[in-house]
Amino acid sequence: MSDGHEHSGQENVPSRQRRRFPGISSRAYEHPADRSALVALRKLSGFDTVFKALSGLLPERSLRLLFLSDSVRVSDQQFAHLNDMLRDACYILDLEKVPPMYVNQDPVPNAMCIGLDEPIIVVTTGLVELLDEEEMRAVVGHEVGHALSGHSVYRTILLFLTSLAVRVAWIPLGNLAIMAIVTALREWFRKSELSADRAGLLVGQDLQSSMRGLMKLAGGHHLHQMNVDAFLKQAEEYEAGGDLRDSVLKILNVLPRSHPFTTVRAAELKKWAESRDYQRIMDGHYPRRSEDKDTSVTDSFRESASHYANHVKSSKDPLMKLVTDIAGGAGDLGSRVRRGFGGPAAKEQPRRDTTDEGGGEGGTES
User: Fold this and answer.
1) Which pairs count as long-range contacts for 37-40, CB under 8 Å and 24+ apart, including other chains?
2) Model confidence over 142-190: pLDDT tens digits?
3) Where are the beta strands (DSSP E) in the chain?
4) What phi, psi does 301 have (nearest 5°)?
5) What is the largest CA-CA distance in the chain?
6) pLDDT, tens digit, for every residue of 13-25?
7) 111-114 and 101-104 as β-strands: parallel, antiparallel, unpaired?
8) What is the per-residue pLDDT for 236?
9) Which residues are catalytic?
10) Among 44, 91, 110, 187, which one has the highest count of C-beta atoms within 10 angstroms of its own C-beta?
11) How far lies 306's CA from each of 13, 63, 276, 312, in Å?
């Protein structure tokens, strides 16, 4: 594998030639829930203009100056191998303007794409040291996917509101109102992370590298001590295990997070990589940016609703199974709910045969 330092642009592509996707729309890889939200927002006349008007309040200029003054800007002279990956990712996804990218000293592995007027990408030293070249390529593609989708605008707003919620915590009900917005934005952003994971796969075009990167984020750099198949089995166990109490705890655990759990991300990405949608993109059949203005909000919401319906039906999660049973009109749900929360099932009452006043067999327990 090439170390990436002695090459530039497209020359650092490994022996297998990666495909390019001219004019690709972000709709090609966006998660249905992410896509429907973004299509609706983009259709609102002046929505982005209103939010960009808040730039006087949002700390974007401060952030840019902070990274410029206290981080290392990726270029041909600094972190050249990352610069090659960034240009390569923009070339593959046909992102016309290459966003500036910074490496920030932080032992915690992380990356983000923020900015209102123009996106900027930031990766931490912890992430650079943790991942190999192909794993890092998927991460850079992930962040370029955020930029192409326009996620950086909403991520910046989320960061600002999270900070604001802390400052106004002393105001009665003030924090409550802001946190309601933050919670909604976090739910959208978790779905946007699934979208960006797909973009990372389109850039790297190596599922195993994407899987390894996610696994390292969960368990560190001891790759020889980990196994992708076993890691994916954890995702199955997480989804199907436990009872209704665990289902509720899963929801509570994920609410404060901006990212989905790592095993869930790996399982979702593998599922998409094996789908017909992914194969069609790789074959060159995908929506173009030139068609974005004709996108139907109704169709997008319908597709999102269909996705969730299928997800609920196929889910092994106890709560999702209960929802499916309720929708299907299954009987004895009260007993099943009690069992689901660890309580004893209600003892079935004797059924009497109304045709036999004297009791007879109708009085016996079934």
Assistant:
1) 37/188, 37/191, 38/149, 38/150, 39/295, 39/297, 39/300, 40/297, 40/300, 40/301
2) 999 999 988 887 777 777 766 665 555 545 545 555 666 666 667 777 8
3) 72-73, 101-104, 111-114, 120-124
4) -65, -40
5) 97
6) 444 589 999 999 9
7) unpaired
8) 84
9) 143
10) 91
11) 38, 39, 16, 10
Per-residue pLDDT, 66: 75
State the angle between helix axes of 174-204 and 80-92 in degrees (0 to 180), rounded to the nearest 10: 90
- What tokens appear for 254 in the block? 């994920």
224, 229, 230, 232 alpha-carbon torsion, rounded to 10°: 120
DSSP string over 38-62 = HHHHHHSTTHHHHHHGGGGTS-HHH
- Taking alpha carbons only, the member of 337, 345, 344, 346 closest to residue 243 is 337
Q: Which of 147, 145, 168 is nearest to 156 (CA)?
A: 147
Angstrom distances, CA of residue 291 to CA of 26, 152, 195: 11, 22, 19
* Residue 364 dihedral angles phi and psi, to the nearest 5°: -85, 155
Residues 260, 190 contacting (CB under 8 angstroms): yes
∠ at Cα 308 (180, 258), nearest 5°? 40
**148: part of which helix (H) or strand (E)?**
helix 133-149
- Give the pTM: 0.70
- DSSP character at residue 24: B
Alpha-carbon distances, residue 345 vs 168, 318, 339, 342 (angstroms)? 47, 16, 6, 9
Which token pair is 248?
């509720």
Mean pLDDT of 346-350: 47
- In 3-state terms, what secondary structure has residue 101? strand
Q: In whole angstroms, give the CA distance from residue 220 to residue 214.
A: 10
Give residues with Cβ within 8 angstroms of 346, minimum separation 6: 334, 335, 338
For residues 301 and 315, what is the distance between their CA atoms, to the nearest angstrom? 21
